[in-house]
Amino acid sequence: MENVIIIGTGPAGYTAAIYTARADLSPLVLTGSQPGGQLTTTTDVENFPGFPDGVMGPELMQKMQQQAERFGARVQNSVEVTSVEQNEDKSFTVNAKQVFGAETMSWNTKTVIIASGASARYLGLPGEMDLVKGGAGLTACATCDGAFYRDVPVAVVGGGDTAAEEATFLTKFASKVYLIHRRDELRASKVMAQRALDNPKIEPVWNSTVTEYLLDDNGRIRGVQLENTVDGSSSELAVEGVFMAIGHNPNSTFLSDALVDKDESGYLLQIPGKTATKTPGIFAAGDIADTVYRQGITAAGQGCAAALEAEHYIAAL
């Protein structure tokens, strides 16, 4: 019987692993299909405390893993959780499968910390994820990467509150922000939309979708190919960065509604002021439950909180 199983290995998962390992709970950490989470797709991370010169996203996650393992955390690589079940004795069974293979496995545990995060939505264009992982000008986090695009034109794809907010934020750095939307008006709230459209640095590109990323000789984005959704015409737009703002998909489909409550988008609902869910012994931390901040440091803070709550829960058994 495990004391703690942590599902996910972003800042929330690894911080939970560090704290539970230092509490001598010997946590088992299941990496999922994207070890290290979204930060592994980010090149330079300049806003995580303790790294005055910045740090590469994959390096930061590797350091967190090493720190957790130093205190006794066990990391199970290349396994993806398929379900979590509660047993009659109120313990849990976590079922998983190999990411690259057919082998299945399961573990019994007293507590589960869900830190499986959320995946940014992209357009599904050829070579898209290579551009994200390579730091070649495509990202889904203006707060993380906006400062790398000083005095150059960029584009934001989307039409909701997030898109309007990201576009407004990017005006602090970029020379021009094109807001590309498939319709002729934003879906954002009236206040948020008006704030963006009133900004002289933001230019809406209505009735348009991105059909191709145009690259320079170094493989970096130099522009996008657009298609007009009304007349089907094509055009090119010169930008050096593209920020995707069409939402996120929480990685929560493996969890049943009997165990956890979710909002309409699938994000886990925590007990107010806690990381605990409606089922005692199951805790949620990081982007799987955070629809507001979505930052590495806030995820790490929730991972710490979930670990402390899990420790107290186990002590009371």
UniProtKB/TrEMBL annotation:
Keyword NADP: yes
GO molecular function annotations of the record: thioredoxin-disulfide reductase (NADPH) activity
Swiss-Prot/TrEMBL cofactor(s): FAD
Entries under Gene3D superfamilies matching the protein: FAD/NAD(P)-binding domain
Similarity remark: Belongs to the class-II pyridine nucleotide-disulfide oxidoreductase family.
Subunit structure: Homodimer.
Protein name (record): Thioredoxin reductase
Organism: Rubritalea tangerina
Organism classification: Bacteria, Pseudomonadati, Verrucomicrobiota, Verrucomicrobiia, Verrucomicrobiales
